[in-house]
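ok so i was messing around last nite and threw this chain in just to see what happens. nothing serious, just curious
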Amino acid sequence: MTSSAPDIASLIHRIMRDDRGRLLAALIRSLGDFHLAEDSLSDALERALIHWSRSGPPDRPDAWLLQTARRRAIDRIRKDRGLADRAPEIRRLMEEDEAERAEAAPEIPDERLRLIFTCCHPALDEKSRVALTLRTVGGLTAREISRAFLDTEPAMGQRISRAKAKIARAGITYKVPEPEDWDARLGSVLTTIYLVFNEGWTAGPGEAPIRATLCEEAIFLARLLTDLAPEDPEIEGLLALMCLSHARHGSRLSPDGTIVSLDDQDRKLWDRALIDEGLTLLDQAMARGRAGPFQLQAAISALHVTSDPPDWPQIRLLYDRLAGFNPSPVVRLNRAVAIAEAGAVQEALDELIGLEPALASYQPFHAALGEIAGRAGDITGARRALRTAIELSRSDTEKRWLSDRLAQLAPH
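result:
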């Protein structure tokens, strides 16, 4: 039975949203080439759209795509002028293809953690490491990544291309390094995993809901890391932070898709098992006596879920300490929100105004500025900030929520 083209297109989109990182990691492991893996996967997707529209999708679409992409890679290598040099590579790929044909829909090995460590090699600068991993493992677009870094989309696209080329030129090995070599990469790996989580935690473009799949993938990768280094407090802190945050995902949207603020969320909808796991991990991490930024963020998240209302003076103190590790404008923005919630609204507003040059294109800054300016009695400034936040938002759900906040402000 055949499926309609729109249904097939939706299926392919869903596979790419959920499994792109796993498929690409397996291809890069097999091909040893980022560009060839991406091009071959794109070829496979084009063939899938044609073949599946005619005869329906296979039982294992992901395995079909992987095998087809590998065959397209063989075709691309054959057309390469350096065929003689790559003949052993073709033979190896053909042997892998024959072996997979003998199996019924073989399971695809999960190579994402190996790919993350490859992308986070010290030969790349910190920003390029994180950006390349978000593109290959997380499947984020250059536009989405540029937003996370407060950068332009063309500049980010060029950065990612240069990083791939540098890995190819340097012959960087595709492996998880030995523990003694972790220090040079672990910070980038943890930051990358958290940015993948954060992208899922943020409402997607248009009417797209919060993308729980990305959040769960980030949690999965962090759990793999805890297996590799079971006593590292920052890995435990990152996993705790994501568990404590993701525990609230079921209450963040109302049944009609409206955003529900933390204060108004139904705590009965929170995932108690994830909260307990996060609190246990945080206790383990802090007991090791080596506090780090992810542990501090997890402690802040713990105060949000264990006290009602949250202990804002304590949260402010934690942000003070976090700023010592990472005095970035985004950390200072969150600290300002904590200052306002602790009762010092004018102090928070003054802090936010000072951050405006650095965060002019950052939508959450304008949303926070609108909220705090309104509390301080600057209704004109609050309305201006909320309008800017609405213009910068890419989520219809978020725009509706911000529009409601704008409507609640007193008129001029």
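not much to say yet. The two ends are 62 Å apart (CA to CA).
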